[in-house]
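Weekly puzzle thread! Below is a chain. First person to post its structure in token form gets bragging rights.
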Amino acid sequence: MIHGKYDVIVVGAGHAGCEAAHAASTLGSSVLLVTMNMESIAKMSCNPAMGGVAKGQIVREIDALGGMSGIISDRSAIQFRMLNKSKGAAMWSPRTQNDRLLFSNYWRDTLEENPRVSMFQDMVSSLIIENDTVVGVNTAMGFVFHATSVVLTSGTFMNGIIHIGRNQFGGGRMAERASTGITEQLVSLGFESGRMKTGTPPRIDGRTLDYSKMEEQKGDEFPTSFSYITEKPLQKQRSCYITYTNPDVHRVLQKGFDDSPMFNGTIKSLGPRYCPSIEDKINRFAERDRHQIFVEPEGWNTVEIYVNGFSTSLPADIQIEALQLVPGFENAKIFRPGYAIEYDFFPPTQLTAQLETKRISNLFFAGQINGTTGYEEAASQGLMAGINAHQKINQLEPFTLSRSEAYIGVLIDDLINKGTQEPYRMFTSRAEYRILLRQDNADSRLTEKGYALGLVQKDRYLAFQEKERQLNELQKYIEDTSIPPEEINPVLLKNNTSSVNQKHKFKKLLSRPQLHTADFDNVATCKETLSQYSRDVKEQAEILIKYEGYIEKEREMAEKLNKFESLFIKPDFDYDQLSSLSAEAKEKLSTIRPKTIGQASRISGVSPSDISVLLVYFGR
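Winning reply:
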């Protein structure tokens, strides 16, 4: 049953699929979004939150490019926090606690408001491939949809198996069936596949908790937002809470280890290293007598609680018994037990920098199918795959981001060059240019690019230009203005820094670690001028001044290393002819087929001496 033709078909409506559909359709492509359940569009399958360390930077980058994750996170937020404010600006990371249902509903509204997006509820059972090019999909109900390009964003659904103790059953998410057929087809075409594991904690009835025994964790006193165009930050917020496990909890959990699929050999795949299950924590860190538990509400109008830090696949009775020994959880009732899930993924070294598969033209992968974990990582890949699907079928320039331009660039570069053996999660430590890739300047880095593509609308671009004008104007004012000692000394003494006996430049004073732009708001010389600028503009100007030397040093380093990105390698180059290359380098280079010397230098197993051999051969 043939049911029409589209420019782009997106398979899966999770965070990757939604961003892919939005991007491709906004750029002008007709899009069909195929999902197994239209009630689960952009569902927050695990914790009801967006952002966090490095992840918050990714959401801001998605927003700066014209994606929707930041805007929808702001609309559905119930709490906002800027993490790591006690550290340097490169580490500041925005995070929202979200209303799970609102987040999903806002995404669906966004897609339905776009006339170029169509939707269909069914399971895609196979891809239609002709002459090594994807041309459509077949569904389980017998429908055939043709397209010029397909973006596959299958999440945890491909051959998904859910584990609770010794019980296991097929599913891509609790109460939702797994998808089958595509893995087997792709493997038959020569793709390499693997298995990964993730998990989720039990959900609790918040009415049965005693919050007086927990530490309250409020949102920021002056919350900001993810999106640069969100005009009204949160006016009210819901608190989260913190409690801890104890030795009694650990003893009960250990009783279930024999029935744990993590320990009895049932689960053979690797889970996320930096988000381990509670049983993994007490096994690996046996010397610790407690572990932190975050008690997170799932929305404005629900009593359901997400127990962050208690991910588990132990038997349900063990889960309940252990939880009720946690302070505040003595009378806890669960809505749903925690579980682990295994699913298929495809090592991302089989992709180009545009997330297109090397074996099949016009077929793109995004999200957990590439071995990543996290909504934010998935959404950014979906955005990039959607953009490049549109660019490819319209014979337009491919769109990529370098490691010095965005965390998104770091993420994709790591995946396609290094691959991953465990669920990949973004951290600030993965980026060489953390000071350049701050959360406050994502718009400065990427909005021009989003506007050039056609994702960022003109009114937003004009607002961005006005902000940049104000930022430059304020920086010049801070550099040029001098403040007399009688005005600034009271501020200096109040902030425990040495006084001055003559006029000092505003810039020199602001460079002191004890001082911030807010400290100058009531200084007579500065008061009137500073009142004209928003808190965001003043904060960014302060960062640029305080970190000026470090920023310039990183920029110079990035420019130096980026020279390798302009040294191109022919796609069919025969690495075997270079006898001085190591055997591993020949194998990796021949498999991944890097486009540039720069890309080759970041492939795991390719050493600096191998790069030297290539540079000598190419006359460099």
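Puzzle host: Confirmed. Bonus trivia for everyone else. The CA atoms of residues 196 and 269 lie 5 Å apart.
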